Amino acid sequence: MSQTNKEKTTKKSNTPKPPKAPRTPLVKVYRNHILLFLAGCVLGIICFGMIYGFHIVNPTYDDWIYQVAGDKGQHYLGWKFYRRTDWTFPIGLLEGLSSEGAVSCMFTDSIPIFAVFFKLLSPILPDTFQYLGLWELMSFALQGGLSALLIYKYSKSPVYCLVGSIPFIIAPTIILRAFRHEALSAQWLIIIALLLWAYREHKWRCKATPVILWSILGALLALIHIYFVPMIYMIMAGYMLCDFFKGKKLLRPILVFICTTLSTLLFLYIIGAFYGDGELQAGGLGIYSSNYNAFFNSYGYSKFLKPLNSCNDNTEGLGYLGFGMILMGFMAIPAAFSRLDTKDKSIFASAKEAFLRHRCEILSVIFVIFASMFLGASPKGTLNGAVIYEINYPDKIVEFLSIFRASGRFIWVADFIIYTAVLAVFAKVSRKKTAVLIVSLCTAVQCLDLRDWFRDVRELFAEPEYVYECRIESEEWDKITEGKSEIVFAPLPPNYLSYMTMYYEFAEMACEKGANLSSFYLARADYERLRKYAQEQLDELNAQNGRDDVLYVFMDKDNV
Question: What is the pLDDT of residue 420?
């Protein structure tokens, strides 16, 4: 090496490096996001209180759960049996509700993430403790906070974001599920997926952050309700398409899919989804589906729009947008065209240019919306009262789809994408005050449209006057259950799930006495095995070999 090169090397090595600028704390970086999120949460809590009141959040007040017949009793009693069950692995197993043995608390829709958390706290909790009210309050808060963040992607106006979050909070799909299928009220999971999609190009400090966030979301799906899995994967498909075709990225979408899938399966295993010999499938595929008029079919919940024919006489396919959002959607069309640059060109040429510039995002959104509508209607597409097609899937596909037999729920994905798209259009209107005014007026129309529904709901839940009284007297129960460790319902009819109220009353008393039930109202169970066990016990009783530790409940008068 020459002397000159040595001098250059020495000079270079001795040159002091400039000090690195200190990183700005994350709290400061995302200060506006945090404040907006908290404000949205407060708005969600206010909406919750105006519709339901707050007394049902009281964890020691559980009488209201039995006030209206429905699945709430299943969810609450599932938690009570889970709470009394010793810890085991998988950690989500509960005992005492089926002759099949232990079952996962996910099959009582007891919201595993809350069930496990509060079971850990069980030693310090009061004997009477319900978390359904707390869960719904949290869901409304998260729906408000997360939807405000989603709108913030398109508008930096806090007022616009908060006003725009109200339709998300009071969406008909949420009001229908709240205190009916509480776990399904967690439609904020869909908002999280839309956030990850909307912020796809965000410059994260750690490149692995998107993969980590999707994986956490996958865990939440398993710990809340399995029906959200296909919904989130639809949105993930749109995210991956944008990543691949626009971002020219291949590794990240593959890692997102693999890690999210592994996370979901892992936590499903942990809570016992695959425990035992029971099947995840259930009948009813094609019955609990959506209609292609779902966005406009109010099912009688609207003040302005009459219900439409839907072929299926159930509300599982409810995807009503609300009259305010429908009105805003039609107004968004001219608003979108007004944003086109028509200087020296026709409006059609400008529209084509805008489409080509954003074709990846537009086509991905259209794909996800149509996937949501198609899977929601599957396997029989209906429009009003007409069947427009019917697909005869292979048996294996039918078995898989039967895991999600109430396919009409998948329309929720399209609903929230439409909400987001409409609000994103008005966020780009040049006059911000005009945009806020239009969204405020349409939100007011939305509230007015659903006002009667809100009033009916409030009458059920807002007044703390109901006192639950079991039809089985306590003294009588003590007498007939003395020395009994199991209650056998026999013979078990095919429609045994329709005996909901009876099961709730026996389960309530049995839980207090530490007794088990031979069958119960579970989301998934092997009817043939339950029937066979009940019949064997009945045959033994008829043969004068009945068990002294069993209380027999006859489901057929001929056996009395």
Answer: 97
Query: Which pLDDT does position 71 carry in this prediction?
Result: 83
Evaluate the omega torsion of the peptide bond into residue 379 and state whether it is cis, within 30 degrees of 0.
Answer: yes
| DSSP β-bridge partners for residue 380 | 390
Q: Alpha-carbon distance 498 to 154, whole Å?
A: 48
B/e letters for 117-147, b = 16+ CB within 10 Å, e = fewer, are ebbeeeeeeeeeebbbbebbbbbbbbbbbbb
Q: Following DSSP, what letter does each residue of 351-416 receive, concatenated?
A: HHHHHHHTHHHHHHHHHHHHHHHHHHHTTEEEETTEEEEE----HHHHHHHGGG--GGGGHHHHHH
Parallel, antiparallel, or unpaired: how do β-strands 516-517 and 486-490 relate?
parallel
pLDDT value, residue 64: 85
Question: What would the mean pLDDT of 295-321 be, rounded to a whole number?
Answer: 91
Query: What is the SS3 string spanning 178-246?
Result: CCCCHHHHCCHHHHHHHHHHHCCCCCCCCCCHHHHHHHHHHHHHHHHCCCHHHHHHHHHHHHHHHHHHC
* CA–CA dist 22, 215 (Å, integer): 30
Q: What are phi and psi of 460, to 5 degrees?
A: -80, -35
pLDDT digits (tens, 9 = 90+) for 312-368: 778 899 999 999 999 999 999 888 877 776 676 777 777 777 778 888 899 999 999
Closest Cα to residue 51, out of 177, 135, 170, 165? 170
| Interatomic CA distance for residues 513 and 44, integer angstroms | 40
- The H or E element spanning position 554 is strand 550-554
Q: How far, in whole angstroms, is CA 388 from its chain's centroid?
A: 29
In which band, very low, low, confident or very high, does the pLDDT at 305 lie, cut at 50, 70 and 90? very high
Give the residue, 510 or 262, on which the prediction is more confident: 262
Name the nearest CA neighbour of 316 among 180, 116, 520, 199: 180
| Alpha carbons 48 and 145: distance in angstroms, whole number | 13
**298 near 306, Cβ under 8 Å?**
yes
**Lowest-confidence region among 23-27, 109-113, 434-438:** 23-27
Neighbours of 556 (CB within 10 A): 11
| Contact by Cβ (8 Å): 96, 133 | no
Split at pLDDT 50, 70, 90, the class of 431 is confident
* CB-based contact 169:44 (threshold 8 Å): yes
Going by C-alpha positions, the residue among 430, 262, 420 that lies closest to residue 335 is: 430
Amino acid, single-letter form, for residue 502: M
The stretches of 246-358 forming alpha helices (DSSP H) are: 251-270, 323-338, 347-357
pTM: 0.92
